[in-house]
From TrEMBL:
Membership in a protein family: Belongs to the DHPS family.
Catalytic activity: 6-hydroxymethyl-7,8-dihydropterin + ATP = (7,8-dihydropterin-6-yl)methyl diphosphate + AMP + H(+); (7,8-dihydropterin-6-yl)methyl diphosphate + 4-aminobenzoate = 7,8-dihydropteroate + diphosphate
Domain of life of the organism encoding this protein: Bacteria
Organism annotation: Collinsella aerofaciens
BP GO terms, sorted: folic acid biosynthetic process; tetrahydrofolate biosynthetic process
Annotated EC: 2.5.1.15
Name listed for the protein in its UniProt record: Dihydropteroate synthase
Length: 573
């Protein structure tokens, strides 16, 4: 199940999976399969990313190259131009940003701009990408992309003939075929190996074998190929060469593009057969051997190269070279993939197979069916769901989790007042917090008097911190706190000063296992470390709060450098 002990280290962030995590899809492209062009403008993309965060997304996955079936590859310069402003702006707002790219140059630039995760659809089969991530601290997503079906064998119609002449003729044909194979053997040798043998695999530093791309053979070139084969290293360098034009046409050696074109044709084509299938789905064993074998091999290769295990997430890559039947087989085996021990991604949002099982033709209308598939994956052990409709899925997940998974978590709420009867306001707020659904007050600090902070021309404040246990999601809890502020007379209109006098002020400071960014809520609260009127009351509730928050990545200032210093006690709650 999703509430397991796995953690995922992504740069300065650490994600726990006591709840499933939501990754919102942000395509900064003109041609993505379900939302192409909607967020192509950087400002629109940034605004939409912040909206997803405020609606419940934990991670924003930013991509600048569509990899839908039949896609046109984009050169790294153009891809970087699309995504970097978006990555930089979202990271500045405290978001955990994932960069969805197969180009090492784009991954490097995005991480420098604040991205915490590299999501490589080619599964880190490029040694240059491995070399980069091993020198960084970002999280990595290893995805499987490639055909998983065994080669189809065609069978000719057999007509039995039991005559002696037929028997002799058959033996003669077999002997002739064997002789022809023996004669061809010397001619089939090239560079000391037979054609059809596995291609030599690249080696990473330390002698670690880098598995080959799982895409199958690329489509034949439109122009005659050179007699001398191009070395793999030169092909990789050519793929990263920056073309003067913003976009480049699909190249014959682009394995991913060729595989996705074949995949689209295979979905559309009707292949007649003389035999009806006996089972609704293909055998899962060979499919899962390919998918799980690739994912575990790549994860081990990354570990041997120097990437720590707790930075690795795996993704079976639904829709990438797979038919609807194959995707269903893979999703039904989610528990087996989760047993590999890495955080597991469910990235099925609006995919073709979701449309096939739901009967929904338009990709943008497949969200409800997507939620159903994601729920099945979560129940089987998936930890992260990658969805287009982050707001809708957050509602769906909050409803399901509240009923299915009892999970009280500790949180701290700061309470302040400098208008009216200050201490009475704080006690009233505490009593109302205790009435929030699925929430209880477990402890309270004493009430302290503090100097004003930020806006000095106002009366002194009364401050306290309340420790609670809650089963609500952070954004849902925040909405409940805002309702209490409004009921107690807090003025949050534009005419009110941001840090001016207030009847009551409620700040969600910290919640167990939660990291969040965005305009609406930041967790941990970004100003905890400089507020004396928060840190001193916290000393009533925990040992050494400064050390606690430093461990959680918060910069905590020395007492003399803080704002809103405590000047006295006003009594107990």
């Amino acid at each position: 199940m999703a509430n397991d002990s796995k953690t995922w280290r992504c740069g300065k962030y650490e994600l726990s999976f006591d709840r499933p995590r939501i990754m919102g899809v942000l395509n900064v492209t003109p041609d993505s399969f379900s939302d192409g062009g909607e967020h192509f403008d950087p400002d629109a993309a940034i605004e939409y990313g912040l909206t997803m965060l405020d609606a419940g997304a934990d991670i924003i996955d930013v991509g600048g190259e569509s990899t839908r079936p039949g896609f046109t590859p984009v050169n790294p310069d153009e891809e970087a131009r699309r995504v970097l402003p978006v990555v930089r702006a979202l990271a500045k707002e405290g978001a955990i940003v994932s960069i969805d790219t197969r180009h090492v140059a784009v991954a490097k630039a995005a991480v420098r701009c604040g991205a915490s995760i590299v999501n490589d659809v080619t599964g880190f089969t490029d040694p240059k990408m491995v070399e980069f991530v091993k020198t960084s601290t970002c999280g990595v997503i290893v995805m499987h992309a490639g055909e998983v079906a065994a080669p189809t064998r065609t069978h000719a119609t057999v007509q039995l003939d039991t005559s002696a002449a037929a028997f002799v003729a058959e033996k003669a044909r077999e002997a002739a075929a064997e002789a022809a194979r023996e004669a061809e053997k010397p001619a089939r040798r090239r560079r000391g190996k037979l054609l059809g043998e596995p291609k030599p695999e690249a080696k990473l530093p330390g002698g670690v074998v880098q598995p080959s791309l799982p895409f199958g053979e690329p489509e034949p070139a439109t122009e005659p190929a050179s007699e001398q084969e191009t070395p793999a290293a030169e092909q990789a360098a050519a793929a990263e060469t920056v073309a003067p034009a913003p976009e480049v046409a699909s190249e014959p050696n682009d394995h991913l593009a060729a595989m996705m074109r074949r995949s689209a044709r295979r979905e559309e084509a009707y292949v007649p057969t003389s035999q009806l299938r006996r089972f609704t789905l293909p055998d899962s064993a060979p499919i899962m051997r390919r998918v799980m074998g690739f994912l575990s091999d790549q994860a081990r290769a990354l570990i041997h190269a120097g990437v720590s295990r707790d930075r690795i997430c795996i993704d079976p890559g639904p829709g990438f070279g797979k038919t609807a039947n194959e995707d269903i087989v893979i999703q039904r085996e989610t528990a087996k993939m989760a047993s590999l021990g890495y955080p597991l991604m469910c990235a099925v949002s609006r995919k073709r197979f979701v449309g096939a099982v739901s009967g929904v033709t338009e990709a943008a209308e497949r969200d409800a069916a997507t939620f159903g598939v994601c729920l099945g994956a979560i129940q089987a052990g998936a930890n992260i769901v990658r969805v287009h409709d982050a707001a809708g899925f957050a509602q769906f997940l909050n409803g399901y989790w509240a009923v299915a998974k009892p999970q009280p978590r500790r949180a701290f709420v700061a309470v302040g007042s400098n208008l009216g009867h200050r201490c009475d306001n704080i006690r009233a707020a505490r009593d109302m917090i205790a009435e929030i659904p699925l929430t209880c007050v477990s402890n309270s600090s004493k009430i302290y008097e503090s100097e004003p902070a930020y806006e000095m021309r106002q009366d002194a404040f009364a401050n306290a911190v309340i420790e609670i246990k809650t089963e609500l999601a952070p954004l849902v809890l925040l909405d409940e706190l805002m309702k209490i502020e409004a009921e107690l007379g807090r003025d949050r209109s534009k005419k009110a000063k941001a840090n001016g006098p207030r009847t009551i002020d409620l700040d969600l400071l910290w919640m167990d296992g939660e990291t969040h960014g965005g305009k609406k809520l930041r967790l941990p609260h970004p100003l905890i470390g400089e507020r004396d009127f928060v840190l001193v009351p916290l000393e009533d509730l925990m040992h050494d709060p400064a050390r606690f928050f430093r461990y959680n990545g918060v910069e905590v200032k020395e007492p003399e450098d803080r704002v809103g210093h405590i000047v006295g006690e006003l009594g107990r709650m």
